[in-house]
């Protein structure tokens, strides 16, 4: 995160974007964002994981969420899905360390409106928040508009179906032949009481003359068609108390089939003027509201004919902002709608309007702007029907979605590029390399791979700082790019390492390119202030053909060849041979030697314990194995499998065994209260220690000083180590058993002669090799092997321990066989030794 004092967009919380939720598992990041955004007027809540975020969303609503995708438990996309399930319109900005375009795109598709990659600049984050707030406001405005549109539609239906109008059918002499039921509401008269009566009897006396004259006019022979329809305002008499009721009456002469209306029927519609005026006012307010909502909406609102979706009835003025056209051009047909759609997106329209009269549809496609650019729009359309279910019109909206698509494309592009040099990054390079491997196998073509590691780069970093180091990498990217062929691929693989993929390149051609790269770097001078530097490059070259192995093997081979080039004097090219891998492996082991020595000097080793539990019964006290851990500079634990091979090869294992024993004895001595409940504490010894008589003397000396502890110790030796040093192993075991210690034969069954030697080793426990235990539930052969080992061991008076027990199913099989003890993640995971006092 950038310095909070650095220039940044002016982002302040507004009425529509004030409540903000931060979901991030990094405490410093949460605290920083809470403090920063709080000073800008946001009400901030900060949580560390998915479960807390979902719980917070249940308690309160938020306008904006800053969401990390990579969380310890759960997936950040779960938060997006929960918002979608609840139908909440909340702007979500993903702030995550992932560089995967697939993850970024997935987040956008699940509803995120923006994506900011960690580490980020403050101005970048604030700009994203500003866009999200603005987008949220636009989305809320659109939702409000759509809600008001629905309200307006319901209001119109109500006005139609609840019309207060009376309908009369009059005979030629003005008598009532039909009246609708509204007469009972409007005039308080039963319909049958009005039938066959002259209309004039229902008219207030003061208005009868006008009505009579109007009837005469409509019955006048030879009257024009226009003269047969008249509307006047008058008063009708209420049937309950003869109270005058002001109305408007419209009369239409229907005629009798001849040329004149004489003797023909008359049609009359009577409307309560008071109710009509109230309805007109409500309608006017409804249309005014609709007009203002459409004008304020960021979307283009339209209406189309349902039978001809390309025929527009209405298009809002926002079309000018979206596409630069006058809306009337679409309505009058001067502008052809299909001509505005990108040819590649016509199938989206086909899916939206498939002829099945869908009630609602959504889609995204491109429309051409008047200036020729393409704009992405989100089309949301709904079919409106009348009371009988007949389609009336299609109403919908176009929302500009161009920026979201631009952001998605930019994320996809950035995901393949190295941010510092602009070259392809390792992920994109490996994708191309994988395609080249497959092509070599399929088409028997030959390619070449170069692995470049800069020489003396560290000198620049240490002398001038990382800014200078970044500068030299950017400059060298241009230098290297000028040396390769047009069809070759150059990428930065990390740090000061580069890769070159030469497709369709024979070995001789690859050598020429590699030599050009080596010479170009050697000729390059880097100037920083008053300092001038020269660098070199070590290049590992490996050919790719139909016999090449997979991606990992090729990269490993190129890396090994590169190391061989460095080992041979640097600033040169080395073509891969099988011996290079062994050289690189030994180099790696030597690095472990340095780390092991440093760990011993700086107390970076630690102990953990894993319980060994009785399968049947409660046992007679705590029983566990002590496990070794080494910690790196960052405090992260390094498992023994990573460093013990180097310790054994370079004779450091004895020092490690002594450290373990001394530390364990010291800890047990410092916690006498723990000894009362302790049955056995198992400690591993290497094959080297079994052959070291001086170590045996030192162990015996220490146990004499801690005589109460000796009976609590069980030393574990591997079957291979015991058999390889049989004579020494027997002397070692017998000497310590005499002091009260017990022994366990570890990884039993892994050797070819396990049973043959078992009777010669005076051990108390047999630990059955985990390769049999892990498959025991499904593999009858493994089950038979375990049963045999268990029976032989118990027959010889030894207790049996099953390693790698991963769950209840395995435990049940072992219980059926009769194995005594179980150890593994299924019964107890390793924990720091400091927790022993609390757990035992």
From TrEMBL:
Domain of life of the organism encoding this protein: Bacteria
Residue stretches making up the PAC domain: 361-413
Occurrences of domain GGDEF (ranges): 445-578
Positions of the PAS domain: 152-222, 286-364
Keywords in alphabetical order: Phosphoprotein
BP terms from Gene Ontology: phosphorelay signal transduction system; regulation of DNA-templated transcription
Keyword Phosphoprotein (UniProt): yes
Response regulatory domain span: 19-133
InterPro entries cross-referenced by the UniProt entry: Biofilm_reg_signaling, CheY-like_superfamily, EAL_dom, EAL_sf, GGDEF_dom, Nucleotide_cyclase, PAC, PAS
Protein's UniProt keywords contain Nuclease: no
Pfam families tied to this protein: EAL, GGDEF, PAS, PAS_3, Response_reg
Modified residues annotated as 4-aspartylphosphate in this record: 68
Required co-factors: Mg(2+)
GO molecular function term, any single one: catalytic activity
Residue ranges occupied by any EAL domain in the UniProt entry: 589-840
Protein name from the UniProt record: Diguanylate cyclase
């Amino acid at each position: 995160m950038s310095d909070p004092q650095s220039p940044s967009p002016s982002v302040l919380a507004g009425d529509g974007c004030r409540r903000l939720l931060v979901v991030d598992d990094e405490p410093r990041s949460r605290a920083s964002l809470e403090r920063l955004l709080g000073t800008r007027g946001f009400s901030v809540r900060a949580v560390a994981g998915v479960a807390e975020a979902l719980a917070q969303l249940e308690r309160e609503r938020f306008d904006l969420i800053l969401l990390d995708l990579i969380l310890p438990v759960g997936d950040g996309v779960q938060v997006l899905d929960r918002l979608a399930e609840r139908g909440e319109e909340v702007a979500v900005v993903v702030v995550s360390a992932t560089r995967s375009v697939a993850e970024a795109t997935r987040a956008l598709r699940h509803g995120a409106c923006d994506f900011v990659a960690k580490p980020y600049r403050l101005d970048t984050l604030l700009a994203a928040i500003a866009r999200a707030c603005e987008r949220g406001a636009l989305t809320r405005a659109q939702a409000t508009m759509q809600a008001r549109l629905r309200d307006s539609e319901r209001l119109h239906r109500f006005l139609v179906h609840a019309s207060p109008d009376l309908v009369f059918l009059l005979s030629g002499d003005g008598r009532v032949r039909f009246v609708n039921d509204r007469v009972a509401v409007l005039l308080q008269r039963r319909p049958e009481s009005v039938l066959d009566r002259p209309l004039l009897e229902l008219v207030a006396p003061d208005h009868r003359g006008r009505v009579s004259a109007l009837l005469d006019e409509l019955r006048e022979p030879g009257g024009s068609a226009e003269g047969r329809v008249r509307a006047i305002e008058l008063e009708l008499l209420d049937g309950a108390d003869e109270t005058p009721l002001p109305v408007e009456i419209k009369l239409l002469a229907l005629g009798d089939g001849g040329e004149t209306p004489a003797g023909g029927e008359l049609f009359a519609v009577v409307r309560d003027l008071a109710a009509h005026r109230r309805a007109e006012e409500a309608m006017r307010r409804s249309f005014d509201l609709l007009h203002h909502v459409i004008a304020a909406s960021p979307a283009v609102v339209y209406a189309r004919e349902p039978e001809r979706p390309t025929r527009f009835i209405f298009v809002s003025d926002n079309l000018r902002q979206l596409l630069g056209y006058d809306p009337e051009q679409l309505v009058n047909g001067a502008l052809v709608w299909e001509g505005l759609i990108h040819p590649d997106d016509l199938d989206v329209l086909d899916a939206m309007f498939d002829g099945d009269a869908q009630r609602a549809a959504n889609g995204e496609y491109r429309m051409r702007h008047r200036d020729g650019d393409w704009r992405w729009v989100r089309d949301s359309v709904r079919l409106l029907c009348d009371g009988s279910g007949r389609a009336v019109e299609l109403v919908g909206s176009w929302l500009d979605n161009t920026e979201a698509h631009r952001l998605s494309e930019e994320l996809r592009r950035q995901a393949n590029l190295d941010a510092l040099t602009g070259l392809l990054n390792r992920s994109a390079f490996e994708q191309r390399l994988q395609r080249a491997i497959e092509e070599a196998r399929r088409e028997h073509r030959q390619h070449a791979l170069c692995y470049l590691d800069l020489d003396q780069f560290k000198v620049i970093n240490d002398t001038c700082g990382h800014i200078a180091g970044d500068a030299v990498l950017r400059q060298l990217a241009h230098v290297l790019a000028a040396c390769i062929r047009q069809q070759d691929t150059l990428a930065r693989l990390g740090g000061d390492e580069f890769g070159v993929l030469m497709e369709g390149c024979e070995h001789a051609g690859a050598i020429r390119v590699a030599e050009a790269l080596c010479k170009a770097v050697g000729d390059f001078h880097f100037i920083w202030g008053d300092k001038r530097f020269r660098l070199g490059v070590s290049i590992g070259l490996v050919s790719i053909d139909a016999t090449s192995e997979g991606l990992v093997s090729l990269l490993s081979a190129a890396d090994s060849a590169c190391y061989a080039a460095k080992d041979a004097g640097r600033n040169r090219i080395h073509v891969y041979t099988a011996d290079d891998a062994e050289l690189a492996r030994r180099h790696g082991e030597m690095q472990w030697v340095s780390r092991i020595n440093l760990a011993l000097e700086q107390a970076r080793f630690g102990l953990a314990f894993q319980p060994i539990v009785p399968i049947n019964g409660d046992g007679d006290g705590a029983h566990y194995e002590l496990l070794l851990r080494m910690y790196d500079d960052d405090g992260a634990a390094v498992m023994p499998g990573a460093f013990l091979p180097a310790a054994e090869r370079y004779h450091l294992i004895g020092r490690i065994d002594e450290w373990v024993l001394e530390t364990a004895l010291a800890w047990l001595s410092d916690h006498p209260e723990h000894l009362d409940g302790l049955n056995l504490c198992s400690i591993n010894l290497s094959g080297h220690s079994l052959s070291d008589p001086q170590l045996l003397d030192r162990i015996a000396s220490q146990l004499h000083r801690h005589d109460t502890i000796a009976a609590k110790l069980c030393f574990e030796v591997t079957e291979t180590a015991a058999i390889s040093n049989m004579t020494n192993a027997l002397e070692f075991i017998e000497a310590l058993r005499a002091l009260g210690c017990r022994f366990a034969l570890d990884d039993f069954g892994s050797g070819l002669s396990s049973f043959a030697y078992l009777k010669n080793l005076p051990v108390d426990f047999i630990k059955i090799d985990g390769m049999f235990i892990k498959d025991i539930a499904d593999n009858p052969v493994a089950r038979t092997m375990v049963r045999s080992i268990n029976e032989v061991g118990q027959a010889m008076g030894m207790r049996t321990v099953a390693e790698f027990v991963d769950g209840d199913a395995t435990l049940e099989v072992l219980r059926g066989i009769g194995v005594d003890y179980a150890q593994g993640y299924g019964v107890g995971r390793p924990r720091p030794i400091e927790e022993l006092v609390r757990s035992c």
